[in-house]
Hints:
Elements: H1 4-11, E1 33-35, E2 41-43, H2 51-71, H3 97-103, H4 107-118, H5 121-127, H6 131-142, E3 149-153, E4 159-163, H7 166-176, H8 179-190, H9 197-202, H10 204-219, H11 227-238, H12 249-272, H13 274-287, H14 291-315
Antiparallel strand pairs: 1-2, 3-4
Amino acid sequence: MRHALTALALALGTATALTGGLLLSCAPPNDPGEATAGGGEKRSAPAESNASERALLDRADQLLVQRCMSRRGIPYWTVPRLSEEESRGVGYVLDDVAWAREYGYGGRLRYKELAAKRADLNLIHRGKLTGQRLTEYTDALYGGPDTPVLSVNVPSGGTISSRLGGCHGTALEELYGDRATWFRVDKIAANLTPLYAAELRSDPRFRSAVTAWSRCMRSAGHPYPDPAAAHGAAAKATAPDAGTTPGSSDERRAFAAEVRLAVAEATCAVNSGLGKTGRALETEYRNKLDGVYLDALAEHAGIERRALARARDITGARP
């Protein structure tokens, strides 16, 4: 599941988040059932998995796919990902000054991801296959044309469909259990943000925090009205297709400027309280979701919790 706050970043108008990255430092876990003063039970959205847990699940999934392909006599390589620290990423606003000082907005990490993709032995191997051998490879990995299509209507509108067959489907089922159930709750959980993003955006507490952040940035010499504007300026200068070569003098200058802007954003997010306010409001609005969606989130969290236990066994990781 994509982190809810990363999804919020997209809903609020900025897509700077790295793959699977977090918007901000993780918020404190929510209790799945918080007692009310009247002795009843106040439901709240369960805590989401953190970067370390998502990395563990990804590693286990890759190993399961590799084992499945090996049983079919087909080579498959596990692929290194960004480190846990690197993959935290940036979403609506960055409020980790140390991370900003080290990675800026993650411009160099995007180069690193592109380099890893070019070196992916699976893509290289697949690129050498043609005809029947290519068909056999893709059918083994993803399932053939007779693989059932799974579909789910998501809360934000529309339908998401996918064929979860082949070794990818087998790995998914070994890790998460029934693939249709996991597909349903995972897609619902990942598409709840649009239900409350507009209301959160217009919340006076959020607007006040953004105004305070913008005022702080202006004082620091960066006159941006909101984080999305700052991210857009940084992305334009540091994107891999912006004409800069990694390690070149132009790239070093661009990265230094990116870091300065990111550090200013993070500092202002802390000083203005925008980071803290965003996390608190995200939790508040998610906890107000209709019960059927809270049910889906609870089911998602339960499946993921059991998958983490399996992932530790598969990878040999310690709890």
